[in-house]
Amino acid sequence: MSTLQGSWIWYELMSPDPEGSKAFYEAVIGCSMATGHGEGNTDYGFVTAPDGAMVGGLLRLSADMQQHGVRPCWLGYVGVDDVDASAQAIEAAGGRVLMAPWDVAMAGRVALVADCCGAPFYIMTPTPPPGGGASTAFSAMPNPGHCGWNELVADDPANAIAFYTEQFGWTLPEPMDTGPMGKYQFIAHDGVTVGAIMGKPPQVPVSAWAPYFWVSSIDAAQAAVAANGGTVINGPHQVPGDLWVIQGTDPQGAVFSLTGHK
After folding, report:
1. What is the mean pLDDT of residues 176-196?
2. pLDDT in tens, 38-78
3. How far is it, in rounded angstroms, from Cα 138 to Cα 256?
């Protein structure tokens, strides 16, 4: 995507057991996961899609993090032109800064924030790699191991829609009527539909983003989830475009979402 502001550029799994997460997701999604990088760095590794593209990171949750309430989860990074200015704007619009902006060597400047409904996500101004280059984390078309959809369940979807369009300039394609669940409001960036915002179902405890990762086969992924200690909690369900989705929990307790053909 050509415009950094408002683009989804990275996805991070927080796990108390990166080795277990690696075994699970490599079997289910077909990606490669490293549990650390560089000399002596065992706290952060990288997630690579089967095509060799980098899509995200794997953060080891320490005991101290868990004691302070951090739980296993997937979080997305939204690209911004100026992290500090964006953090201030998010607070002014009713969001919160959970971790103030900090610099990550050779990666960029990052902050952990929450939107007006409490859903957490990162904002980031990346440091361009040598020779430049855009993020390869999101793919609108089927591409195993990449994220293909970003879905927000919000306790106040109208407020959330206003928040995100103001902060990131997202546009709003025609929504889909889901009956009792209300409108499923698609969101687009640079003319590409990248996800949707919907009301939070009663069984979902908090507002949250869910990245959906492409898989080659939903049936094969569902079987791999069961064979590798995960649990499917929703689906498979067919969605428009002859695609199917499932949601589940991995063996470490993080919720995950997958999409693909049968």
Report:
1. 94
2. 666 679 999 999 999 999 999 999 888 898 888 999 999 99
3. 16
H or E element that contains 67: helix 63-67
CATH number of the domain that residue 67 is part of:
3.10.180.10
Does a structural domain hold residue 202?
Answer: no
> 260: closest CA among 245, 241, 248, 240?
245
Partners of 257 in beta bridges: 212, 247
Average pLDDT across the chain, whole number: 94
Q: Which among 130, 143, 113 has a CA at the least distance from the CA of 212?
A: 143
- Our measurement of the distance from residue 83's CA atom to the centroid of its chain's CA atoms, rounded to an integer in Å, reads 18
> 156, 237, 231, 238: which is closest to 200 by C-alpha?
156
- pLDDT at residue number 39: 65
Tell me which residue range forms the domain holding 49. 8-126
81 domain-assigned: yes
The pTM for the full model equals 0.95
Peptide bond into 142 cis (omega under 30): no
DSSP calls for 136-201: -SB-SS--TTSEEEEEEEESSHHHHHHHHHHHH--B-PPPEE-GGG-EEEEEEETTEEEEEEEEPP
Stated as kind and residue range, the H or E segment containing 25 is helix 18-28
